[in-house]
C-alpha cells in the first residue's frame, strides 16, 4: 500500500487530453507526461482534421478553388482564399483593380476582428473560474461578433465563409448604405472592446493566470517558424502586411503592436491592440474607397478555365494567426500541379513541446489557448 | 402527496400528455410512462460539446448569446457520460472516426445523433479524399440531418426542433450505412505517368550539401524557418526549403532533387527546431526519409497508413476500410 503511494507521488504518469476536450479548441490530442501536477514532457498529436485540401486542389480548376480554401482556417476564411488568389495572380500576371484590393482588405480586417473575438471568448472559457465562470466573456464576445457577421451577411450573403475573393478581383461590391452600417458597428465595437480591456486588465486573477505563463523566447519563436501574434508577443515586429505588403496595405496607416516578455499576457495584449488597429484600417478603407470595377476578369459564373503559364509562385498574407502562404506549381494546365499551404497554426503549435514543460497542468490549457490554433489550419 | 394545481401557473405542456383528474384534496395525473419519459427527454437534450471543423463555429454561435439554445433545454456537457445527444459538426476523418465511435459508445441510452453540415452528411467537397469519411453515418447511426455549409444557426435550431418532434412521436429510425461490410482493400493501381517539362527554377543543391548550406545561412542571420515542402515531378522528387532573416527582411529558398524510388536527404532539425514537424509532414505525405531526424513518423495520417498520398501515383479516393468506401461503392450507395 505504502509503496503505491510513493509511486504516485514520485512517479511519472501520462495523461491524455483530447481529441475531444473542450479546451483543445478543436480536434487535438496532447499526451502530457506529468510529475505530480507539473508537466515534464508533451507529445502533441495532430491530423484529426486532415482533409487533404492539397490533394484536392490538384483535381479542381483554379476558379473553383478559392471557396474550397475558405474552409481551411475557418475563423478567418478570406485570408485563405486571399493567399490563394494572390499566388495565382502572381503566377498568371493578373492585375487587380484598386477597388477590389480595398474591398479585400475590408473583409480581411473585419474577419480579423471576428477571429480575435472568438479567440478572446474561448480564452475566457479556458481560464474558466477566473472570469465569472468563464462564460461571461464568451457570451460577450460572441454577441459582438454577431454584429460583424450581420454586416458580412448583408454584404456577401453568408455569415463567414464569404466567398468574397475570386481570381482577378472580388465578387461583391458594397451596397449603398453600407458605410453607415459599418461606422455604427465600428463605434459600438470600439466601445465594447475597451470595456473588456478594462475588465480583464484590472482583474488580478486574469493577470495572475497569464503573466509569466508560457514564455516564448524570440529566438525559439523564429527557429520554429511561429508567426503572427505569437511572434510579435515575443517582441519581434514582423508583420507580412508591413514587411511584404500585398493588396495595397502600404496605403493604410497602422501600428504593429508588439509584446515584451512573450508570455500569454503579451499575446493577449497584441491581439487586443490588433483589433483596434483593424478597426482603424477598416475606417481608412471606407474613407478612401476608390471608384472603378471590382474585378479585372469577367465575373465567374462557370469555371473559365484559367491556364496560368508553367512555373511556380508563393504568396503570403497576414492571417489573424500569422503568415499564411500558398505555394503553387503550375504545369500550364487549368489545374494546379501542386499546392502547398504554409499554415501559421501548424508552426505555432509546434512550439508546444518546448514551452509547456515546467508548467502546471492548469496552465497548459491557458498556454494552448494563448497560441490560438485553428485545427482546420493545422491539418489542412 | 399531490400538490394542488394552481390555475394561474404557467403550464408545462403536461396537459397534452395525459389527463388531470381532480379529486377533493388530491389531484391525479394520468399518462403513460412512455409519453412522460419522451416529454422529459425532449426537453432536456444535453449534447456533447464537441466540434470538428467550421460547422462547429456556427454551432458555438448557436449556443451563445444571440441564439441561445438553453431555451430549448439544450445545454452542452463536456463528458459523453452526461450527454444524450451528439452533434457532429464538421468533417469526419478516418483518424477521428474511431474516436467518434468510442465517444458514441460511452454515451448512455437513450441517445441521438445530429449530423450537421454537408461534411457530416456526405463529406461535402472532401468526400473523395483519402482521409475523409463520406458522411458520419458510415460510423454511427444518425437521426437528424441538418443541411448547409455551414448550417446557419436557424438551421441548427430547426434540427433540434425536428429531433424533439421525433422523440415525442417515438419514431426514431436512425440511419447507418452498412455498405462498408462489403468493402475490401483495393489494390493501388498506379496511373501511367507522363513526364512533364515543368521548368525547375531556383537554387538547386545536392542532398549531401543541405546541412552545411543550412548552417551557413543560419549563421548569416537567416533564423526563421518558413516552410519545408516537396513536389513530386514524377522523374524526381524535389524538396523546397525557405528560410528568412526577419531583421533584414530577406529570404532564401533552396531545393534538392531526390531519386523518387529512394528519397533520402539529411535532416536540418539540428539547425532549425521547426524543421521537425515540417520534415515529418514531408515524410507522411511524400515518404521522404530525412536522415538524422529524431522522431520521423507520420504526423497527419494514422500511424498504420499505407502509401504517401501526395505522390502523383496515389489515387485521391483510395479507400481505407472500414469507414471509407471507394468512389464506386459510395456512388452506388447514393443511388439506392
Ligand atoms: S460542411 Fe462546410 S462549413 Fe461545415 S465543416 Fe464541412 S466545409 Fe466546413
- Determine the most extensive contact between two protein chains: A-B, 70 and 67 residues
Q: How far apart, in Å, are the first and last alpha carbons of chain B?
A: 56 Å
The quaternary structure here is heterodimer
β-strand percent of chain B reads 15-25%
Label the CATH architecture of the largest domain in chain B. 3-Layer(aba) Sandwich
CATH topological fold name of the largest domain in chain B: Rossmann fold
Strand line-up of the largest beta sheet of chain A: 1-2-3
The average pLDDT of chain B is 79
CATH class of the largest domain in chain B: Alpha Beta
Number of beta-strand segments of chain A: 8
The small-molecule ligands in this entry are: iron/sulfur cluster
Low-confidence stretches of chain A: 1-7
> If strands are numbered along the chain, what order do they take across the biggest sheet of chain B?
6-9-8-7
Rg of chain A, rounded, reads 22 Å
| Helical/strand content category of chain A | alpha+beta
Supply the number of helical segments of chain A: 16
Amino acid at each position: 500500500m505504502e509503496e503505491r503511494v510513493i509511486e504516485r507521488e514520485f512517479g511519472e504518469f501520462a495523461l491524455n487530453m483530447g481529441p475531444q476536450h473542450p479546451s483543445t479548441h478543436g480536434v487535438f490530442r496532447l499526451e502530457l507526461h506529468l510529475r505530480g501536477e507539473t508537466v515534464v514532457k508533451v507529445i502533441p498529436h495532430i491530423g484529426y482534421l486532415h482533409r487533404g485540401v492539397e490533394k484536392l486542389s490538384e483535381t479542381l480548376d483554379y476558379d473553383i478553388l478559392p471557396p474550397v480554401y475558405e474552409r481551411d482556417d475557418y475563423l478567418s476564411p478570406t485570408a485563405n482564399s486571399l493567399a490563394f488568389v494572390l499566388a495565382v495572380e502572381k503566377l498568371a500576371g493578373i492585375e487587380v483593380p484598386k477597388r477590389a484590393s480595398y474591398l479585400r482588405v475590408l473583409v480581411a480586417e473585419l474577419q480579423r476582428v471576428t477571429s480575435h473575438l472568438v479567440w478572446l471568448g474561448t480564452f475566457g472559457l479556458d481560464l474558466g473560474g477566473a472570469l465569472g465562470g468563464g462564460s461571461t466573456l464568451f457570451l460577450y464576445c460572441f454577441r459582438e461578433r454577431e454584429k460583424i457577421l450581420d454586416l458580412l451577411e448583408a454584404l456577401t450573403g453568408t455569415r463567414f465563409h464569404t466567398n468574397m475573393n475570386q481570381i482577378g478581383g472580388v465578387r461583391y461590391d458594397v451596397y449603398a448604405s453600407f458605410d453607415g452600417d459599418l461606422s455604427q458597428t465600428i463605434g459600438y465595437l470600439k466601445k465594447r472592446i475597451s470595456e473588456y480591456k478594462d475588465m480583464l486588465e484590472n482583474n488580478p486573477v486574469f493577470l495572475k493566470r497569464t503573466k509569466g505563463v508560457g514564455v516564448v523566447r524570440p529566438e525559439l519563436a523564429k527557429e520554429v517558424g511561429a508567426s503572427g501574434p505569437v511572434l510579435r508577443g515575443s517582441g519581434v515586429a514582423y508583420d507580412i502586411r508591413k514587411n511584404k505588403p500585398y493588396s495595397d496595405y502600404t496605403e493604410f496607416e497602422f501600428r504593429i503592436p508588439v509584446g515584451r516578455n512573450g508570455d500569454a499576457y503579451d499575446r493577449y495584449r497584441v491581439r487586443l491592440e490588433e483589433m483596434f488597429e483593424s478597426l482603424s484600417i477598416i475606417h481608412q478603407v471606407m474613407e478612401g474607397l476608390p471608384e472603378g470595377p471590382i474585378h479585372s476578369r469577367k465575373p465567374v459564373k462557370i469555371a473559365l478555365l484559367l491556364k496560368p503559364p508553367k512555373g511556380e509562385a508563393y504568396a503570403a498574407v497576414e492571417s489573424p494567426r500569422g503568415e499564411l502562404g500558398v505555394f503553387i506549381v503550375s504545369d500550364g494546365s487549368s489545374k494546379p500541379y501542386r499546392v502547398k499551404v504554409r499554415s501559421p497554426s501548424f508552426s505555432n503549435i509546434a512550439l508546444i513541446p518546448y514551452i509547456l514543460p515546467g508548467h502546471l497542468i492548469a496552465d497548459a490549457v491557458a498556454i494552448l489557448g494563448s497560441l490560438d490554433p485553428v485545427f482546420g489550419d493545422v491539418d489542412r | 402527496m399531490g400538490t394542488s394545481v394552481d390555475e394561474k401557473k404557467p403550464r408545462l405542456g403536461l396537459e397534452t400528455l395525459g389527463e388531470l383528474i381532480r379529486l377533493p384534496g388530491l389531484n391525479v395525473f394520468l399518462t403513460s410512462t412512455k409519453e412522460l419519459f419522451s416529454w422529459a427527454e425532449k426537453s432536456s437534450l444535453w449534447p456533447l460539446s464537441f466540434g470538428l471543423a467550421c460547422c462547429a463555429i456556427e454551432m458555438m454561435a448557436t449556443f451563445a448569446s444571440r441564439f441561445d439554445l438553453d431555451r430549448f433545454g439544450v445545454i452542452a456537457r463536456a463528458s459523453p457520460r452526461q450527454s444524450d445527444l451528439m452533434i457532429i459538426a464538421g468533417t469526419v476523418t478516418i483518424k477521428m472516426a474511431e474516436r467518434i465511435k468510442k465517444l458514441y459508445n460511452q454515451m448512455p441510452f437513450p441517445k441521438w445523433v445530429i449530423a450537421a453540415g454537408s461534411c457530416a452528411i456526405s463529406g461535402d467537397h472532401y468526400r473523395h479524399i483519402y482521409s475523409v469519411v463520406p458522411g458520419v453515418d458510415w460510423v454511427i447511426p444518425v437521426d437528424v440531418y441538418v443541411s448547409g455549409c455551414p448550417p446557419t444557426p436557424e438551421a441548427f435550431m430547426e434540427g433540434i426542433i425536428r429531433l424533439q418532434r421525433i422523440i415525442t412521436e417515438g419514431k426514431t429510425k436512425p440511419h447507418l450505412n452498412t455498405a462498408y461490410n462489403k468493402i475490401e482493400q483495393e489494390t493501388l493501381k498506379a496511373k501511367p505517368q507522363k513526364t512533364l517539362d515543368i521548368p525547375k527554377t531556383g537554387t538547386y543543391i545536392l542532398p549531401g550539401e543541405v546541412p552545411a548550406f543550412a548552417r551557413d545561412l543560419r549563421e548569416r542571420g537567416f533564423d526563421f524557418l518558413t516552410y519545408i515542402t516537396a513536389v513530386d515531378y514524377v522523374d524526381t522528387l524535389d524538396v523546397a526549403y525557405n528560410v528568412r532573416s526577419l531583421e533584414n527582411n530577406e529570404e532564401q529558398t533552396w531545393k534538392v532533387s531526390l531519386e523518387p524510388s529512394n528519397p533520402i536527404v539529411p535532416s536540418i532539425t539540428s539547425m532549425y527546431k521547426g524543421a521537425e514537424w515540417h520534415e515529418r509532414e514531408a515524410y507522411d505525405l511524400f515518404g521522404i526519409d530525412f536522415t538524422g531526424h529524431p522522431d520521423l513518423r507520420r504526423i497527419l495520417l494514422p500511424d498504420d497508413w499505407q502509401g504517401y498520398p501526395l505522390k502523383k501515383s496515389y489515387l485521391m479516393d483510395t479507400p481505407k476500410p472500414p469507414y471509407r468506401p471507394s468512389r464506386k461503392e459510395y456512388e452506388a450507395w447514393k443511388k439506392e
